Amino acid sequence: MDIRLIKAEDLEQLLKKNKFPKYRSKQIENWARKIDIISFDQMSNLPNDLIHFLIENFKLNKSKVKTSKKSSDGTIKFAIQLYDNLIVEAVLIPSNKRITACVSSQVGCSLDCNFCATSKIKKMRNLESYEIFDQIMLLNKESINHFSSPITNIVFMGMGEPLLNYKNVIESIDQITSDFGIGISYKKITLSTSGISKMIRKMADDNIKFNLAISLHTALEKTRNKVMPFSKSFPIKELVDSLEYWHKKIKRKITFEYLIWKEINDDFEHINALVSICKRIPSKVNIIEYNDTDNSIFRNADDKWINNYVTTLKENRIPVSVRRSRGKDIDAACGQLANKY
Ligand code: SAH
């Protein structure tokens, strides 16, 4: 077992039982979280017998950066190798005032959005909390190296569905926001979900103050069931109810992420359905550019339809922005993370 999975009290007990002082527990925890420490024998203020005890009883499953690729727009994509040699991708996105770390929560994804390259990855598992932690700490270190500044924002928009790995995501963020991590505030963290309604309610009940983004893409059930087949188990009505519930407790605006595809959702029926959901829930709409994957069914809608969406949303006083993709030339943009090597 990785040493970071054992609770501090349990480690203290175990140390005591083996005649090591309790205070070593805190030292070990501190060392284990440091990004440059990859083996127990680097924990330089621990006595040798304790180091041997740790080596015999625990693992330190550190992740490492395997490769990186830089886009012409400054975005950098990293392949991060996990202890079992599986790979997740993570992206650093610099802009004027911020450096955003886009992180993964699963290897591959358990959902089946037809337009997303990540859903095609066969080998799938949840990331452990310490793997998400390492991923963010590695990105932070890279950010300091490349941009002379730590990361300022975290978005769970890499591989995987964070709400289907809820416990580990929350645990990792507990650590990242603490002194062990980088002390970043919850306000700077955005969790993006395809819309797992019962977990959205749980997040509200647990009072987790992330920013929330929903990959909506269409507000019509029939279309959503086609492009995101898993959504048959998560009807839009339940999703919207859960968002209302979340908003009542957390009191923040929700972001709807929205792709507009030719002959799929480029018509007024879809526009009006979106408007009516936005009227129920304090929200803003982020229209994102569709990035090509190896899939010919999906094509970006004509600009005319993007304008129709924008105009109608504005007429209804719903905030809307149109976002250009970053890192497309290196397959680092939304929906393109697919471990191509
Ligand atoms: N599973 C979560 C986290 C992934 S976020 C979620 O769905 O929200 C990745 C974002 O990129 C999602 O909004 C997803 O819908 C979007 N996306 C997927 N494929 C895309 C593509 N080919 N082009 C643009 N965006 C895409």
Secondary structure: number of strands: 12
Q: Which shape, going by the Cα principal axes?
A: elongated
* Mean of pLDDT: 95
List unreliable stretches of 5+ residues.
Answer: none
**Given this structure, which CATH class of the largest domain is correct?**
Alpha Beta
Provide the structure class.
alpha/beta
Q: Briefly, what is this?
A:
The protein is an alpha/beta fold and 341 residues long. The chain folds into two domains: 3-57, DNA polymerase, domain 1, CATH 1.10.150; 64-330, TIM Barrel, CATH 3.20.20.
Structural commentary:
It is a single chain. The protein is of the alpha/beta class and 341 residues long. It folds into two domains: 3-57, DNA polymerase, domain 1; 64-330, Aldolase class I (TIM Barrel, Alpha-Beta Barrel). It contains ten helices and twelve strands. It has helices at residues 8-17, 24-33, 48-57, 129-147, 166-176, 197-205, 221-227, 236-250, 268-280, 303-315; strands at residues 64-70, 76-81, 87-94, 99-102, 106-107, 125-126, 153-156, 189-193, 211-215, 254-259, 283-288, 320-323. A ten-stranded mixed β-sheet has the order 1-2-3-4-7-8-9-10-11-12, covered by helices on one side. It has a two-stranded antiparallel sheet with strand order 5-6. Strand 1 and strand 2 (76-81) form a beta hairpin. Helix 1 packs across helix 2, helix 4 crosses helix 5 (166-176) and helix 9 (268-280) packs parallel to helix 10 (303-315). The radius of gyration is 22 Å and the shape is elongated. The model has no long low-confidence stretch (mean pLDDT 95). Residues 113, 115-116, 157, 161, 192-194, 215, 257, 259, 288, 290-291, 293, 334-335 line the site of S-adenosyl-L-homocysteine.
